[in-house]
Amino acid sequence: MLPSKASHSKAKPKTLVLIDSSNFHFILKHFGLYESEIRWGDFFHWLAGTRHASELEVRWIKPEKLVQTSTHTAAGAAWLREARAKFRHVDNMYRRFEEQYQEIRIQRTGFVRADPEQQLYLEEKGVDVALGVELAWASRDESYDKIILISGDSDLVYAVHKAQQSGKAVKLIAFCDTHRQPVNMSRALARCANKVFKVYLSTLKSRFLLSPQHEGNTTAKKPLAVA
Predict the structure, then answer these.
(1) What is the pTM of this model?
(2) How many Cα atoms within 13 Å fall on the side-chain side of residue 200?
(3) Which of 17, 67, 128, 136 could disulfide-link 58, Cβ–Cβ 3.0 to 4.6 Å?
(4) pLDDT category, 99, cuts 50, 70, 90?
């Protein structure tokens, strides 16, 4: 008797969410919100139209380190110490997201350059390149059937086109303020996406804010999706 063949059910393709952390941070700050205030599980599943953990993967791409130009004044040194402390605080917050939400993966790459003497951040390098690489990789991976992009960077236009040529739809998330205008969004990037999905400040506040008793507590385990 021939051995029976084991049945292998093909896994359902996932939706991949790619996030430019600096772009997203700027948008939330513009709205008067912080990353720690949002129920990310509910939010990402709402964006993707998914319910189960196996249907969704989120890659949050952020700078790996803070670098600085030279400093030679006490004021500049004090500003740099504070900037480094803030950077560590934000990095620890993202670590807690990874612990709390099983679908979220934080990818650290590149750097933010700061000028302590002018007390400002000059540039970010590496995150846009990593996003482009992730788009190219996902376009060839049959594990994903849809890609959701949270970024406003026009440098990603080419990578979006390549993903589309591979048959993957790219949905771009546009966050809109009280004037219903997208915040920090490249028009070229919006034109090339398969779909632009608008998220309004009122929606974030009414549906996805943590309840007051949970605000600031991102260490407790909470399921991202329906079991």
Answers:
(1) 0.85
(2) 6
(3) 17
(4) very high
